[in-house]
Amino acid sequence: MIQLNTIHESPVTRRKLVIIGNGMAGARMAEDILAADPNHDFDIVMFGDEPYGNYNRILLSHVLNGSQEPQEIFLNPLAWYEENQITLHAGKRVTKIDRENKIVYADDVAEEYDVLIFATGSRPFVPPIQGTTLHGVFVFRTIDDCRNIAEYAKDCKSAIVIGGGLLGLEAAKGLMTHNVSVTVVEMGPWLMAVQLDEAGGKVLQQTIEKLGITALTSASTKELLGHTTVTGVKFADGREVAADMVVISAGIRPNKELAAEHGIVCDRAILVDDQLRTSDTSIYGVGECVQHRGMVYGLVAPIWEQTKALAQLLTGKNPQARYVGSKLATKLKVMGVELASMGRISDVKPTDEVVTFAEPGRQVYWKAIVRDGKVSACCMLGDLEPADQLVDYFMNDTPAPSRRLELFFGSGTKAQGADFSLADMPDDKQICDCNGVSKKTICDAIRAGKCTVPAVGKATRAGTGCGSCKTLVKGLIEAVNGEVKAEPSESWYVTAVPMDKPTLVAEVKIRELKSVSAVLRELGTADDEKSKNGLASMLKSIWGTEYIDERDARYINDRVHANIQKDGTFSVIPRIYGGITSADDLIKIGQVAKKYDVRMVKFTGGQRIDLLGIKKDDLPKVWADLGMPSGYAYTKALRTVKTCVGTEFCRYGTNDSTALGIALEKKFQGFEFPAKVKLGVSGCPRNCSESTVKDIGIVASDGGDWDILVGGAAGASVRKTDLLCRVKTQEEAIRVVGRFMIYYRDNAKWIERTYDFVPRIGIEKIRDIIVNNSLGIVEDLDREVEKTIAAYVDPWLERNNPVYAGQFEDVKTVPLPMVTV
Amino acid sequence: MQTSTQTRLALCQIDDLPVGLGRSFEVGETPIAVFRTRAGKVFATDAFCPHKGGPLADGMLAGDQVVCPYHAFRFDSQTGECDQANVCAIATYPIDVAADGGVFITV
Predict the structure, then answer these.
(1) Domain residues for A197?
(2) Which residue in the set A465, A532, A564 is minimally distant from B58, CB to CB?
(3) Which fold has domain B8-106?
(4) N or C terminus: fewer CB in 10 A for chain A?
(5) What is the pLDDT of residues A748-797, one digit of tens each?
(6) Burial (Cβ within 10 Å: 0-12, 13-18, ≥19) of residue A117
(7) In chain A, whose CA is at the least distance from the CA of B19?
(8) Tens digits of residue pLDDT in A123-143
(9) CA-based nearest distance A616→chain B, Å
């Protein structure tokens, strides 16, 4: 009676809201209603299956592994319901709904309603196989399941988890803490099929296997074995695996039966519209039990969006509120593996672009799907560094950067540009990977007055390795000091001679300086090894056969024509023109590898064969036995010409890429440059030899012409080539390439790769000079090509006549004299 | 009782040392790198860089410094000190060249 009076005294018409379900969706629904309706216009009644208040199901595995007590994961204790005047019928199951009179019945309770909300959630799917009722078989869904599993696991040595999804892996992780050896069985071909693609699933599998969990994929469970207690699992292929207990985590099924029985339209789940209304306008639905625009969600984020929209609508706070579906972007941690998932990664159309990055050594795998210029799905595993950026692109429908790799690496694969904040970088972040120099070390040096890139390099070594971090160092100087001091030495060709390259070349010619020591003696202000290397390269191109070749101006690789390795041995890569070899040559290489006990025989990225671990003493013998010319893989010269099979074999080929590749490599072998030069020739626009990231790439067009591309890179820096010109014939292609090579050789700074040189000069200017002959020098360039070809001698012929004492000797042994006492 | 004895012994002839470069020796069981600068100075150091074991005789000379071929750490020909603060110095060995071109090391 008292309560009746209260209702009548209320200033507005009170309505009665009944929520079926007291899980995360139901309880959140009540909270959102309370928040949107501070005057309490609704009387709220809730029914919950479980005899508790609601709890955070996401934390169940913590209860299973003992890191949290059950009471810690409760969201709303029973007192909360009282405080908010919510009537909770805990442990009571709704069995009947009288839609006409708007009454729900549960056991011995009946409640009238104005508004009814289904938040019945879902239940674990138990596959229809024999043995699921055996003792020792569990599902993993509720707090009671957790307790029962943990209790039972105490007496078990082995457990099988059926289902390799998120929940299954959580269960496996929980079981591990009970000293049970766990096998995860997944019916699909890989783990976490909802969040990951195949490659990602495989990476995850390797990672969890390292933790000691066995994972079986493509394993369809046929039967649970045992008489009264489970003893193992039998698979469809007849295999049996023994186990003391089985946890089934094979997905969830929406609890739609109550709704369906009462005539509410259902498909896979209860159907709702954008106002979250079912087919009965007084009845709504939220959470895992509903299907909205074809989607059934099993994560909390969409549920929060649904309950919020419905609360706004029902309380009248925002009658226009609508739920239009959720974009799913989640970051999870499964067994210590960080994972981010956005959209549906398995949804790939033929027109989509797929961008992937993998780093198997660290179990890192990133994949993004770009549809109509926007990120439609993404999964990331192992390292979530760019995940926030991807979430932004995905959630806000931001157009993806035209250089797709910027999705993962910001706009600064080379320069770490605009999107990348140096200030936000942690102090211990390594800037120079070659020398292991941290941001803090560099910033300390800058604060101590080192305000040029070379000064920082001298103080900290940063930027003195491969040099690819110099832009970052420059950025740090700008950030710390405000500006980078002008550094005159930056324009010098080498640091030991204070002149830019044109001045230096002119001086060298006037004074007829033909050796490195002569240049240093007459023009130098210092003496360092890098300057000597640079001068040697330059003098050789100026003087050709007149050059006085002093071997102490060469780096070890250039002295012994092989690449030094970390253990003092060398690698030998013979030239394989155009990446095409023969059975006889392969046999010969194999025999040499055996004879000299070669520790590793490796195919290089440039379609050649690398013999690693050769002692210096053996180099001349290995070269003699191979009988092949040097591949120049150790020096700043023409390296490889990578080809595809082109018209010779490929059914798509439009021109003869192998013939051109071989011709280029034969013609230009031994050409030395300020930095290495790699070529690629592709026989059709599909570009299988990746010519667009080579220093010089040649790609056959659909019509069979050749596009000459320059300035590409795919190493520490990544750059797509620029189109220099299109030519008709192989001869023209070779001529243009030769002219570009000489122009680059004579105008680039020391160690300046084409990917820096081409943008520095500008492709238009280069095209004017090389193609349109704007300077009138192309005949000179052609002559220079012929001169350089004439000067070519295979350096491996030095095997017969070493040019200095001990050139091919590891160590000279000098015995101690016998001591007489 | 132990005594440390220093031994001076013949290593090679001066022409066995390439100009401006180094050469590896194993004197008894001690690996040693011997260098001959373009200016005519001869000196000897430990054979391996204390950083990552780079073979110093395969390095280059920058003035009177040896530059390791692996990561370009520099060591002084006289003191053996490294140009990097936290890399320890290498040992150097007395060496002398006789009038007939014989090179002697004292170990």
Answers:
(1) 126-250
(2) A564
(3) Rieske Iron-sulfur Protein (2.102.10)
(4) C
(5) 989 999 999 999 999 999 999 999 999 999 999 999 999 999 989 999 99
(6) buried
(7) A552
(8) 888 888 888 888 999 988 777
(9) 11
